[in-house]
Automatic annotation (TrEMBL):
Domain Aminoacyl-transfer RNA synthetases class-II family profile: 184-501
Keywords of the record: Aminoacyl-tRNA synthetase, ATP-binding, Cytoplasm, Ligase, Magnesium, Metal-binding, Nucleotide-binding, Protein biosynthesis
GO molecular function: lysine-tRNA ligase activity
Family note: Belongs to the class-II aminoacyl-tRNA synthetase family.
Protein name: Lysine--tRNA ligase
Organism for this UniProt entry: Solibaculum intestinale
InterPro entries in the cross-refs: Aa-tRNA-synt_II, aa-tRNA-synth_II, aa-tRNA-synth_II/BPL/LPL, Lys-tRNA-ligase_II, Lys-tRNA-ligase_II_bac/euk, Lys-tRNA-ligase_II_N, Lys-tRNA-synth_II_C, NA-bd_OB-fold
Binding residues annotated for Mg(2+) 2, in chain numbering: E420
Binding site for Mg(2+) 1: E413, E420
Pfam families listed in its UniProt record: tRNA-synt_2, tRNA_anti-codon
Amino acid sequence: MSETKEVNQSPEQETQSLSELLQIRRDKLGELQAQGKDPFAITTAEQTIHAADIAARFEELENTDCAIAGRMMTRRDMGKANFIDLHDATGRIQVYVRMNDVGEEAFAQFKKWDLGDLIEVKGFIFRTRRGEISVHAKEIRLLSKSLLPLPEKFHGLKDTDTRYRQRYLDLIVNPEVKDTFLKRSRIISSIRRYLDSQGFVEVETPILNVIAGGATARPFVTHHNTLDLDMYLRIAPELYLKRLIVGGMERVYELGRNFRNEGMDVRHNPEFTMVELYEAFTDYHGMMERAENLIAGAAKEVLGTTKITYQGEEIDLTPPFARMTMIDAVKKFSGLDFDSFRGDDAAARAAAKGLGIEEVKDDMAWGDVLNLVFEEKVEEQLVQPTFIIDYPVEISPLTKRKPDAPHLTERFELFIVRREFGNAYSELNDPIDQRARFERQAALREKGDDEAQMLDEDFLTALEYGMPPTGGLGIGIDRLVMLLTDSYSIRDVLLFPTMKPLEK
């Protein structure tokens, strides 16, 4: 069926044609099975080299034998000889298949194969008269039958919804997509390598939690039948990791999934990947250095430089990153000096309303309003890497207060390209203060705030045994991958993003 016919057909004709194509492929499979040549019965294949290696090492490999395996993506039929494109995990290689070389019977079977079929080729490496590096086939074998036709080349898989739902098809038809996920793997490896080299121990903590703690977020709720107990998918591993610091594991990290029952957009997915690390005997300044090293190191790993381009904007990830207090940032970008009405909640609310911020609530404290103004007026201004430091205590229930300004905490968030990439504290290790902070969160929860934190008695008990001064840091892996692969949406860096089910 030609491209022109497919494009010009009515939906009814296309449905009929697709049905016919599906039946033809199944008939071919049935014929093979009747001949005792069921491709699905094959258990192994020979693969001595990949396509990219052939291209990279052609000078030394020319005229040597090889065995390759992959998916047949195109065919150029010249009668008793064909050129096909075979795609494997590393890319594309051209294969020359001639009847005189593979045998008349094998060639006749080959001519019945379809685009999308998985095949094995044994032959030798050569360059065609047109100069293209290729494999000259001596033996060919069908390994697996594709019963569904691939999207047609020029009008193929462009719809993003289909691409996200059927990522396997996206990877077949759009090979460049694979590069994003290869880079993702390298970014994660880079982070692990750095932390391991610095004496951190990778650990695993529970994903099913009795108490949803460690972050301000709405949890997913599930039920344990044997215990007849509601449980929560973790929103953060923080409280477990800090228990390990109490236990004497001075440097720990966990790289894994968190789950938050919140909105979905180009920056948010209900399940996402984070690295959280905790280090005894340091503070949030030490965490700034860790964050710079992690991000700059990952950039060098996958891009070879710390100067990158994201969505058309040049970003410099070279340490050190800029630092600015939240109060100074709000003053710079909104004109409001929150120091001038510190302790006067009503004045803070009135000032924010004067800026046209409608989300101000009558029960908001000074620190809550400061954070709201920051979110509304400042975040969109933070393009280059910037540590926003010294957050108000009201929104930092797990963070140590600043000794010379107890209304503030030793906390930072890292912003790049107008997005938060990391969150870090000098960890609160005062069990009495921590209880008071938890109790304030519990009061907010009773008022209907589903994102407020729960009181964790066992964690308080751990703190009462004594936790050393500690710095903690969390960095969102998905957003970091977005930055380093120039991806607009978080769905572009998740192999299988959460999707609303299709209506049947």
